[in-house]
Model the fold of this input.
Amino acid sequence: MTSENATTATSPEQSALLALQRATHATLQLLAAELVDLDLTASEINALANLADGRGRTVSELGAAVGTRPTTLTGILDRLERRGHITRGTRAGDRRSVLIELTPTGRLAADTIRRTVTDLERRALGDLSPAQVDGFHAALRALTKASA
Done:
């Protein structure tokens, strides 16, 4: 995208980044309220949601998926491991690589998170056209790419 195509925000109400931040805070508050029984932080919810497909990931892979550095992710993984939601092991053929996998209790929590996220997305985006949702995803990818 060139600067001629970019929208120039002249006020906080017109800023896409500030709107994204407002939406993020509102979404995190809603998820925390709906998932209060799990007693997890937003970062822990994010990590378990990204593991909900049942596929193990390395710390680097999970860090990229949740949008955080592996060093930051370590504390999140420590808490999830202490609570019995994940295990850390080695990947077959690469003993240096730490593989993060869900435990049975982690699978239950991740499934609950995934259902809650899916329901929230359906409620929030259900009235949008597929093209609008695609545009939303394109904007998110552009923001992620710009921040990398």
